[in-house]
């Protein structure tokens, strides 16, 4: 990639890592607006110090580095450059209508600044005949860390790898993009505004407004996203991610940092996050989401997490040449669906002192289909997540190769105290048998009879009287569900907390103590 575009690429690296890092704000805390995040009081810097910093950044005389300009105004550390051109060795690739520097000064022997703003940025990159064009109405970075400010200086001096070789902490108080557009032969992307930064309480905020993606020529893609708003992010928890993300191609380190950051589940990622107004059309497949909202509230050792997803709708294309999509649409037509609509939600209470998690009425539901829900009380959650994160990090380093022993160790950390699972039929059972009949031949009623007959074989695998009764209860409950709808309910109320790995090994060997586990299966009639 060319040198000038690396200056623009910096903003994308920050933006993408920020999107991974930043979570949301509490219900009582509104997200600061972009102007509040960017606010910096201009300082008066000694002229000699300011000039020294400008020279170190190749910004004292036009053309000293990769930047040249038609005019410069300002003094005492605060400057405005107009009609700026950023060059590489062969061509002019980036033009900036105006660049503002606020608080230019020295930090020891390195130049620094309080704020840099690029306005009316236009960039063109032509590689192997393919042209990429970028436009930004504005890019602003406020209070960059010394390491990041130094990288800017090195880039302005012509260092092509300045942002890939940063030594030290990468960070900033705020960053914003406005009126961004990127286009190439495949796609056009536009963003009205993207803001991220640090609020007064030292937590992070992130906001994205009006994202649009449109495919060109053969790329039949159209995506719209109204907003993502997240504040109250736990910046300390994800300290290593931004730096890892800035390292060009260092995906293993990025993955390791990400999984390491997720280990302490009792340290919340955010206080509030929301995504609204997703509307996507991909090869005729339409996906819309009204909203997804999540909140996390921590008091002492306890944290309450709540999440709610309002309708996610999936509509198959009316006409398509894609084989898989044709089969998908045919299946929906057979079941009597012209679209699928999902909702989801739930509440989890995490107790750090007890190392426990209690999930209440966590569910996913499909309109005119089903509702699957569960309540769960378990301990060992932190150890489970730590081992899961370590396993995923190891897997990332090993090219995606899984370690079965690590997976077993992960399961051994988790203990189930109580569990309640319910599957409510809202017509999905009849529809699935109708689909099966269409694909295999026969009638739905005949297939239902076959399925109920097969349930009778469960008793043959029973090893004792308790297992025999459980098998009979399962057969009766599932048969009732097939015939009359309603809900299939599974409860686990063990006499003593049960280790998940031991439960799995017992199930595999057939040595399951049904009475000790308190397992019951029942059917509840439709309301």
Textual characterization of the structure:
This protein has helices at residues 3-21, 34-38, 47-56, 146-156, 239-246, 251-261, 323-335, 381-397, 404-412, 428-440, 444-455, 465-484, 500-509, 514-517, and strands spanning 67-68, 71-75, 78-87, 92-102, 105-107, 110-112, 115-127, 130-142, 174-183, 187-198, 204-215, 221-233, 272-282, 285-299, 302-315, 340-351, 356-366, 370-379, 415-425, 486-492, 498-499, 519-524. It is an alpha+beta fold. The chain has three domains: 1-223, no CATH class; 283-379, no CATH class; 423-524, no CATH class. The strands form two sheets. It has a 20-stranded antiparallel beta sheet that branches. A hairpin with a 5-residue loop joins strand 10 (187-198) and strand 11. The protein starts with a helix and ends with a strand. It comes from Hellea balneolensis. This is Lipoprotein.
Quick synopsis:
This is Lipoprotein. The chain has helices spanning 3-21, 34-38, 47-56, 146-156, 239-246, 251-261, 323-335, 381-397, 404-412, 428-440, 444-455, 465-484, 500-509, 514-517; strands at 67-68, 71-75, 78-87, 92-102, 105-107, 110-112, 115-127, 130-142, 174-183, 187-198, 204-215, 221-233, 272-282, 285-299, 302-315, 340-351, 356-366, 370-379, 415-425, 486-492, 498-499, 519-524. It is α+β, with helices and mostly antiparallel strands and 527 residues long.
């Amino acid at each position: 990639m060319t040198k000038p575009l690396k200056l623009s690429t910096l903003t994308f690296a920050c933006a993408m890592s920020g999107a991974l890092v930043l979570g949301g704000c509490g219900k009582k805390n509104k997200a600061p607006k972009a102007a509040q995040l960017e606010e910096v009081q201009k300082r008066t810097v000694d002229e000699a110090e300011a000039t020294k910093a400008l020279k170190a950044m190749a910004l004292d005389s036009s053309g000293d580095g990769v930047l040249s300009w038609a005019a410069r105004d300002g003094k005492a550390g605060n400057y405005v450059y107009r009609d700026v051109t950023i060059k590489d060795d062969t061509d002019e690739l980036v033009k900036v209508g105006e660049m503002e520097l606020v608080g230019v000064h020295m930090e020891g022997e390195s130049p620094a600044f309080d704020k840099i703003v690029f306005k009316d940025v236009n960039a063109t990159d032509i590689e192997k005949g393919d042209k990429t064009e970028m436009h930004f109405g504005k890019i602003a970075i406020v209070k960059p860390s010394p390491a990041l400010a130094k990288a800017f200086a090195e880039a302005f001096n012509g260092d092509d790898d300045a942002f890939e070789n940063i030594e030290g902490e990468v960070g900033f108080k705020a960053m914003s993009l406005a009126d961004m557009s990127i286009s190439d032969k495949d796609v056009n992307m536009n963003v009205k505004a993207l803001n991220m930064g640090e609020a007064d309480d030292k937590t992070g905020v992130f906001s994205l407004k009006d994202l649009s993606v449109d495919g060109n020529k053969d790329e039949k893609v159209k995506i719209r996203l109204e907003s993502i708003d997240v504040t109250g992010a736990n910046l300390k928890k994800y300290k290593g991610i931004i730096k890892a993300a800035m390292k060009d191609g260092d995906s293993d380190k990025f993955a390791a940092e990400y999984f390491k950051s997720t280990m302490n589940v009792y340290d919340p990622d955010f206080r509030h996050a929301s995504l609204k107004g997703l509307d996507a059309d991909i090869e005729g497949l339409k996906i819309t989401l009204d909203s997804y909202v999540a909140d996390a509230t921590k008091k002492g050792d306890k944290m309450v997490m709540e999440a709610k997803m309002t309708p996610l709708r999936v509509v198959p294309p009316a006409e398509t040449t894609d084989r898989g999509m044709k089969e998908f649409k045919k299946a929906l037509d057979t079941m009597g669906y012209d679209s699928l609509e999902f909702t989801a939600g739930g509440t989890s209470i995490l107790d750090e002192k007890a190392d426990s998690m209690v999930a209440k009425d966590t569910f996913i539901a499909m309109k005119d289909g089903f509702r699957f829900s569960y309540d769960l009380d378990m301990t060992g959650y932190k150890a489970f997540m730590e081992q899961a994160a370590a396993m995923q990090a190891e897997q990332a380093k090993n090219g995606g190769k899984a370690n079965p022993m690590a997976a077993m160790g992960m399961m051994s950390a988790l203990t189930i105290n109580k569990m309640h699972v319910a599957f409510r039929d809202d017509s999905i059972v009849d529809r699935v048998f109708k689909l099966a009949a269409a694909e295999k031949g026969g009638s739905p009623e005949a297939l239902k009879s076959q399925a109920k007959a097969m349930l009778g074989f469960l008793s043959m695998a029973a090893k004792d009287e308790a297992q025999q009764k459980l098998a009979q209860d399962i057969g009766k409950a599932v048969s009732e569900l097939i015939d009359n709808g309603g809900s299939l309910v599974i409860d686990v109320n063990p006499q003593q907390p049960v280790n998940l790995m031991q439960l799995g090994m017992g199930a595999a060997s057939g040595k399951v103590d049904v009475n000790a586990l308190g397992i019951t299966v029942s059917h509840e009639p439709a309301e």
